[in-house]
Amino acid sequence: MITLMERHTASPLKSMRFCLKNANAFSRTTASEFVHPRTYHRSFSTVRPYIPKDSTSTHFGYSEIPVDEKEGKVRDVFNKVAETYDLMNDLMSGGMHRLWKDYLLEESNVAAMARHTRKSAAFSGGGDISNKNNDDSSVAQQLKILDVAGGTGDVAFRFVDAAGCLERAKSSGTDPVSVTVCDINPGMLRVGEARARAKFGSNILDGTKGLTFIQGNAQSLDFDDNTFDLYTIAFGLRNVTNVDVALAEALRVLKPGGRFMCLEFSHVTLPILAQLYEVYSFQVIPALGEWVAKDRSSYQYLVESIRKFPNQADLMSRIRGMGFCRSKYTNLTGGIVALHEGWKSI
User: Fold this and answer.
1) Nearest CA to 185 among 295, 287, 76, 109?
2) What does pTM read for this prediction?
3) Which of 28, 54, 143, 236 could lock 117 by a disulfide, CB 3.0 to 4.6 Å apart?
4) Which pLDDT tens digits describe the chain residue by residue (346 residues)?
């Protein structure tokens, strides 16, 4: 089913002109300035702000709640499901989430980028960046990946394997390739770190720093501007209170030329599949949540949050409106899931 793919891209000429026109703008633009994209990219964003300036409420599933309450409610949901989250993903998707994440890994080209980084680092100093000066040549020999809302490590572990971080962890010194998992929920992070230590051992976390778990908010990331080469978020963007702010933060922390990739449940494009998926989502998934996790309401929210999330074209408009260029999306499994991508201009 994963072979059912449709690719949709922005106009190449328009995208190129936009990247060139804005090549010097992003290094001096803050996340808050990108919240209302029409102010800065009027010709590229025709969608309304995700949360209008004068709005005091937002959606939590199908419920309307005060904006300042959503973050806490989402945190509560994932605190409840953290221990059974990966099992539930298998049950809810029939194991398909593994194939979707594998596709994300394949498209990211992390394996090739890591090989190049390691060769460059080895040529200039043995592959250990811990004792290098923080100059331009040192920075160029590092590959930094940020996986947001990746608490249990499912996507990050794929990057670790593909990038050879486990093999590198058998040596001393700091790995020039690093994968950082950032999640707002401490329960999910605890599960993820425990899984990482069981799977990879402790040196990759405590020694070479090839893998790191950090608590943080997608809307206010505690990282410097222009830090990461790749930003990924899988099945997490729809749970963010203000998607526009999260996209702006992604742009801010990416290096010039860095890549944004969002894997997320989306809107089914095949009518027959849409009907079946609707029944499965609202009749089967909450029941599975009640049976496996003893928590029907959390999984009811997860289903409803998918329906409230922007469709494929709307999200691509938001990504492009925030300042990303070469934006595109690919529908997987008839649009049940979509992979959106964009690049920060050089």
Assistant:
1) 76
2) 0.84
3) 143
4) 444 566 777 554 444 444 544 433 333 333 333 333 322 233 344 578 887 777 888 877 778 888 888 888 888 888 888 888 888 788 778 889 999 999 999 999 999 999 999 988 877 665 555 544 444 444 447 999 999 999 899 999 999 999 999 999 988 889 999 999 999 999 999 999 999 999 999 999 999 999 999 999 999 999 999 999 999 999 999 999 999 999 999 999 999 999 999 999 999 999 999 999 999 999 999 998 898 888 898 889 889 999 999 999 999 999 999 999 999 999 999 999 999 999 999 9
